Every structure is written in C-alpha cells, then in structure tokens.
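Regression check, FE2/S2 (inorganic) cluster case 226:
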Amino acid sequence: MSNLTLTINQQDYEFDNLDPRTTLLDVCRHHLHITGPKKGCDHGQCGACTMLINGRRINSCLTLAVMHDGDEITTIEGIGMPESLSELQQAFKDHDAFQCGYCTPGQICSATALIEEVKQQWSSHVTTDLQNPNGLLVQEIAERMSGNICRCSAYPNIIRAISQVLEKQVSNSSSVSDNAPNDKATDVTISGIWSPPPSEAQIGNQSIIKPTDYASNAANAQGERS
Ligand code: FES
Ligand code: FES
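Current build output:
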C-alpha cells in the first residue's frame, strides 16, 4: 500500500494506503469522482481517458497513480467548466464536434496539448520538413489526434474546431506564416476517420484547410462515409 499526494486540477489529494496497482484513471473516477475522463477500452487504444500530466497528454488508463506524486495533473474539469469554457471547448460547441460526447473530454484534452506542441514546433510522424513543421495542415492535425477515437465519427467537425483555435492561436508564429494558406493550396478531403494516418498522396498535397473549404470538405466526407 502507498501514501501519496496527487495534484489534480490545482487541488491536492492525499492518499493513505492506496493500492499501488490503481491506475490514475481509476483514482480519478472511483476514488475522487472526477468523472470527466472516460473509460473506453482500458487498454490504451481509444484515448477517452486522456489527461494532461505536466502539460503533456497521456492515456490515464495505462499509468499508475503512484507514478505521479508531485505531478500537475489536468483533466477536462481543469480545462474548463460549463460556465467558463476554454476557447477549444467553445469551438467544439460552435462546430458541433461531438454526438454522444463520450470521447469529447479526451479529444479536448488531447487537442489542448496538440496546440501547445504546434506552438513549440514539435514535428510529427507526417511532418515532411523538420525545420519548418506546419501544424495547420489537416494531415498534421489528423496524425496528432490519431490516438483519440470517436465511435460517432465526428472527425470532420473535430478537425474544424481544432483548426479554428490553432489558426487563431498560432497565426503569428513564423513557422506558420511561412506556410500560410495561399492561392496554390488545393482542397483536402477529410476522410471522416483519422486512423490509419493520411496517405502519402494526401500528405504530398501539403494543403491547409481554409474556412471556405469547410463546407465542401464536409460534403465530401459525408459522401465518402455513406
Ligand atoms: S480508456 Fe484509456 S485509452 Fe481507452
Ligand atoms: S462523439 Fe460519440 S464517441 Fe465521439
């Protein structure tokens, strides 16, 4: 049995005799009744349990609570509540980026960390120019969000919500302005699913989704799924 202090959403919780086999997800949901993080698969496959640990996203079903004594843990409740939504949460509402909502806390936690990764110019598996990564590419967003599955397939609207906040928050960074949307940008079809990652052909387009493209892309995505 273990004694530890967890700092979750800026509040300290003391534990005496916690079973060291308890996952961080179970501590939140079962011990503390912090139920924003969801248990989908409990195997690290779906991302519904995503939380932020010191600003980085993690599947909380795959990590033990005892490993996080002293860490800053943030769940969806710490990102924003109904009366104080974060910009990304508001964007998810505005773009209708959910249906049942079960995956949404994990999606928003993951996307919150994604935006910080882009600001820091971290590359991803589909980044073709490591010196000049462009997080605004639809393919980049899809790849970086590939650990979060949506059984309702709300992917097109999730991408729109993330794109809107990304464009706003990183539009002044040099890496993005170097690759800002231009007349040569070609349309990207959002397939409606982001796993497996986009094809080489899609990545080769190096296209950036533009607000004016949203309607046509949505129509394309709907057509492909039907
Ligand atoms: S519940 Fe943790 S990844 Fe699915
Ligand atoms: S909105 Fe239902 S699982 Fe994503």
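Comparison notes: The chain has a mean pLDDT of 82. Residues 87-225 form a domain with the DNA polymerase; domain 1 fold (CATH 1.10.150.120). No diff flagged against the previous build.
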